[in-house]
From TrEMBL:
Span list, region Disordered: 1-20, 222-323
InterPro entries per UniProt: DUF8191 (IPR058504)
Protein name: DUF8191 domain-containing protein
Natural source organism: Gymnopilus junonius
Ranges annotated as biased composition (Basic and acidic residues): 1-11
Amino acid sequence: MLSQPDEKGGEDGEEYDELLPTPILGDDNLYFCAECTSEVVDGLCHRCGAEHRYLEDEIFHESSSTVTQAIHPDRVSAPRGTTPLLDVDPLREIPPMESCISQYPVKQGSRENEYWQLIQRGATRLMCETFRLEFSYEAGIYAWADDDIFRDFSGPLMRPGDFWKIQLGRRIELDSDDLDGSAFIEGLLEDALLFPYRGHFSRKLHEKWETVEESPGIWITRIQEDRNMDEDDDYSSTSNDMSDGEDGPDSHHEGSTTVICPNEYDISEDDPEQGSAEIDDGDSKWDSGEENFDELEDDLSEGEDDASTENTSEGPISEDEQALAEEAAYFADFPIRIS
């Protein structure tokens, strides 16, 4: 039977751990008992209780970070004064990048200053050579996709033999084991293309990425320009992205509205000189003064007399005609006001 290690650990504890059986590594990075094949948690089998070597440092831990590289501040292309640059040894050897033979349409000539900028912004020499990195003060860092990146992430419109340039921004942060930067570029493409932060119907363009054909056979993937930042993202898109001419619940069309109640206060009551303003109603115009009220009453009276004369000459009137005559006589007794 194995002796228990002392509380202080030390050499006795290490020797005790070495004598314990090693758990079996199964699918999904789970460990199982070497005797009953049940799951081992924290070095103990939950079924038989057998002790195993505790391999915490050797267990593969997947990254659970919620940071997306697609909208990281380092991905902007415009120059900024807050980009932290690394201190590079001035005596560091500079590779002859201008003499490298490449199938990519990279710039020719001396690239010594460009190489120093890339190193100061987090790139490695192996990354510069693998992806033919480019840097310009106006556009930032770009990488040319190699065969593996092109095969795994290229779009359906890209054809064999095309070139693909990917925007990396103003600065690069590589993991310690990512010497050539391939993991960084793959993670960026996953965040930008496969799992974008902004959906297809989002109206915020400054956090969206696009892949366009810059020239025949040369494609570029880049973050869109910083436009329409004040646009609401989720709510406003529901009423503006509809198809077939459908309108949202709050949409209004200028020019199609009709006036229900016209403004009655266009004429100032404090100005006596504006008392004779005219009101247009169809084919007739009336003055707003009271001198025309008597004329309107006379017109109604004459109409009533004419109707009575016609009815007398033609014989007995019908019930409808009698009702109209009574209505006209009723309104003739009251002044008509027009405002």
